[in-house]
Amino acid sequence: MSMFEPTRPRFGGGVAAGAVRIFDTTLRDGEQAPGAGLTAAEKLEVARQLVRLRVDVIEAGFPSASPGDFEAVRRIAQETRGGIAVAALARCRDGDPQRAVEAISVAERPHLHLFIATSDIHLAHKLRMTREQALDEAVRWVGWARKTLGRDAEIEFSAEDASRTEMDYLLDVYEAVTEAGASTLNIPDTVGYAIPSEFGRIVSAVHDRVGDAATISVHCHNDLGLATANTLAAVQAGARQVEVTINGLGERAGNASLEEVVMALRTRPAQFPDLAASVATDQITAASRLVSYLTGFAVQPNKAIVGANAFSHESGIHQDGVLKNPLTYEIMTPQSVGLAGSTLSIGKLSGRRGLQGKLRELGYEVEGEQLDAVYRAAIQLADTKKDVTDADLIALVEQKKADVPRSIELLGWSISSSSGGHSVGSASLVVAGEAKAGDATGNGPVNALFKAVDAAILPVLGWNPVLTEYEIKAVSGDGDAQGQVLLRARRSSDEGHNALIVTGHGLSTNIIEASLEAYLVAANKLHGAEINGIEVAFVGRRTVEEVP
Ligand code: KIV
Ligand code: ZN
Predict the structure, then answer these.
(1) Could you tell me if 291 and 142 lie in one domain?
(2) pLDDT digits (tens, 9 = 90+) for 421-438
(3) Are the C-beta atoms of residues 299 and 305 closer than 8 Å to each other?
(4) Is there an atom of ligand 1 within 6 Å of 70 CB?
(5) Predicted pLDDT at 533
(6) Which of 24, 358, 419, 512 is the most exposed place for a label (fewest CB within 10 A)?
(7) Do residues 385 and 425 both lie within one domain?
(8) Residue 15 domain-assigned (yes or no)
């Protein structure tokens, strides 16, 4: 029997009646997806889109993971205003909570997220702690945080692997941390093990134990494809915060996807009486495209809400029905998720204003220098390509948004290639202020030019980029289409599991130019990480457990 009989939230801001708080963890759990590592500047770009999307909380990162992630969280905390909270993750272990508090101290609404594992399997094999020790650590650090941050700050506690934790112990932990000052109790289905009815019962049990003393949150992984279903069952059982990511990005099979959870709440209100999320759903498509582009994780065509086929109707019967009345086969409108029908077209004589309006219609808010850069690129493209399509414009905006500071510049290149023979390439560059040239042969023009770039970079930096992935696709279906290159690379001096891997993007109607641009972007990111250690947020290549 509980000694603790709460009647109202004691700490933090709580969640308004009728609201479901949207806690976006794309920049923390999402970024833990292997290979999804973002630079600090890219994280900021995503955070700005999350602000436009009007999520309630942005979990910006895990400051103890690396100086890069600390800096990214701090910059997001500094910039994010308008009532949106910025959260940072910390283990219940000396050093972590202090670092997280330091990173979010500049936020308008700081939100500290503490966690410790509670399942027997994690306690025995990972933490090597007893249940009592884990409970003591949880209470100690939640108490410390409450004392440090004061009454009004949001302090969230997660019992990692909650869904595989013995129930009485789990409830004791949640009750104890609530008494110690936690204002949000997060129930993670860390390994995506729960099924909806079972998960709803866990949420109800926690709710019965702590009442309104804390907001109940859920964090569902998708290992059995049930993350969204579990999250919705949890809301029906009393959860008022949901932890989600754009495109369902995240560790392994990912997290519950923001767009699915939010659109389910909105499309089926009768199933969630008097509850709503205040997200600007018409920003969903732009958010999805940006995250997919920056992380290099393509969205599957049949993905709910944001997949390329989510609103397209192939069969004659469906097309006929949709033409007569879209409600026959569409349960939500494409406009409600920001997929507007195109009305403006862009040509050589279009002005900046027209372009800005068009981009807004496509879900992108672009202004100032970025607008100038996209404008120049669009006009240049209109010179070389008959039709500048929506897909071309989206690719241009994304390319400009993802630009990186450059210490390695390509001045020029040439290639000689013939059928059946080797290709011979040369490239001239400025590398960290030094003019350098390189020549090389390769099994094709791209390979020869990458090697020529390597020959110029290696003597100055002591390493060259090594490709771990390379892919090229046409932006649109026309014969004069732009080629878009996505590659991943590491430094030749870094080996093995802990090597930093970055993405590089290139875009051009000339696929050699597009490939070289992508290679240079990756080289600059790798160099940026080396010289200041803060440009790249390293958490993307490490799981939470691997961080020392
Ligand atoms: O999946 C998980 O358990 C987590 C916690 C850190 C909340 O990501
Ligand atoms: Zn997680």
Answers:
(1) yes
(2) 789 999 999 999 999 999
(3) no
(4) no
(5) 56
(6) 419
(7) no
(8) no
Specify whether 26 is located in the same domain as 169.
Answer: yes
- What does the block give as tokens for 380? 């240049």
Residue type, 454: D
Looking at every residue in the chain, the average pLDDT score rounds to 89
Instruction: Give the number of other CB atoms < 10 A from CB of residue 144.
Output: 19
Give the integer Cα–Cα distance in Å for 219 and 26: 12
- Looking at 401, 417, 438, the residue that finishes a domain is 401
Q: Which ligand is nearest to the CA of 96?
A: 1
In 3D space, the residue among 57, 65, 55, 73 whose CA is nearest the CA of residue 32 turns out to be: 65
* Per-residue confidence band for 119, with pLDDT thresholds at 50, 70 and 90: very high
Same domain, residue pair 395 and 428: no
Q: In total, how many domains does the chain have?
A: 3
How far from the centroid of its chain's Cα atoms is residue 436's Cα? 37
User: Which of 207, 204, 162 is closest to 184 using CA atoms?
Assistant: 207
Please tell me the residue having the least CA distance from ligand 1 atom 1. Answer: 190
- Does ligand 1 come within 6 angstroms of the Cβ of 115? yes
Query: Do 192 and 222 fall within a single domain?
Result: yes
Ligand 1 pocket member 31 (CB < 6 A): no
Give every strand in the sheet of 502-508, ordered side by side: 465-474, 483-491, 502-508
User: What is the C-alpha separation between 92 and 150, in angstroms, rounded?
Assistant: 18
User: Which ligand 1 atom sits nearest the alpha carbon of residue 221?
Assistant: 1
Please tell me the pTM assigned to this model. 0.86
The residue among 203 and 320 whose pLDDT is bigger is 203
pLDDT band at 255 (very low <50, low <70, confident <90, very high): very high
- Percent of the chain past pLDDT 90, that is, above it, reads 65
Question: Taken in order 454, 504, 541, 164, is the CA torsion positive or negative?
Answer: negative
For 388-397, write each residue's pLDDT tens digit.
888 888 888 8
Ligand with an atom nearest the CA of residue 117: 1
pLDDT at 332: 93
pLDDT of residue 8: 52
Q: How far is the CA of 21 from the centre of ligand 1 (A)?
A: 17
Instruction: Give the range of the structural domain holding residue 350, as residue numbers without chain letter.
Output: 340-401
Contact 266, 231 (CB under 8 A): no
d(CA 113, CA 145): 10
Q: How many whole angstroms separate alpha carbon 249 and alpha carbon 83?
A: 25
- Give per-residue pLDDT as tens, 468-502: 889 898 887 777 888 889 999 989 998 766 678 88
Helices (H), 211-309: 227-236, 258-267, 284-295
Q: Is 55 a domain residue? A: yes
